[in-house]
Amino acid sequence: MARRKDRATEALWAYAFIAPTALGLGLFYLWPVLQTAYFSFTEWGAFGGHEWTGVDNYVRLVSDPELGRALVNTFTFTGLGLLSIPLAIVFAALLNRKMRGVGVYRTLFFLPYVTMPVAVAMVWRWLYNGDYGLINNALALVGVDGPNWIADPDTALYAVVVIGIWSSIGYNMIILLAGMQSIPADYYEAAALDGAGPVRQFVRITLPLLSPTAFFVSVISVIGSLQLFDLVFVIAGSGASARANPAFPRLQTVVQLFYDRAFVTNDRGYAAAIVMVLLLIIVILTAVQFRLQRRWVHYA
Description:
Layout: H1 2-39, E1 42-44, E2 50-52, H2 56-62, H3 65-81, H4 84-95, H5 102-114, H6 117-127, H7 134-141, H8 156-181, H9 185-193, H10 198-226, H11 230-236, H12 239-243, H13 248-251, H14 254-264, H15 268-296
Antiparallel strand pairs: 1-2
């Protein structure tokens, strides 16, 4: 009887400790999701009222070409943005050794991540300017006439991809560097005694034991890339001014489309449906990643 009482007391304390976190998750995460799911089946009026319309918003989604373009742009950015992971692994390996000023180099790589995205986008918008941008001025020195990077449909999306990789590579590098430093040195000493060089050690020891960390980085990178908004919003803008840019169809992402429908055209029910589709995509891709990680992730 006393043992049961002790277990009940322990369970009560456990629930008491997790209650604040559970309350916060429910209030700020779960409830907004449920509320948005409900709104996706409604139509909003100009003054805030809404009425139930069933699956009408989802029917509109199927035949909306703008959503299709936004999905293609978002998937392209996400896929190309994953290039930051192998680059981060290389830089992490280079900085995972004793060298002069290594702390300074790590800080410089990490700075873009902690810089405000709006500030980053504004600086890159100046760099990409077709008339007086630094990139085109540098190309002009070697006789190359650079395009207007963010106004040319052929280069606009890839220009944003470069910004995304540049911004995230430092964060990915820090996480991967921590994963490298957690690998026991005994493995490398044994490999060195067997005659394995640095490259062979990196391929045979570092990469397999780093795979759990790389898997975590890939999951958060995909989720973050699918929610791209701030860079595009600053570079391309929104509403009529953004649509004046000939490259806007190649820049618009799913979240950008959601913002336009929710806060520019005031079509909030349709915007909620867009967000629910994006949530479903994120859940599916995350589940696929967890499924595929069994084939390439090695847990020590």
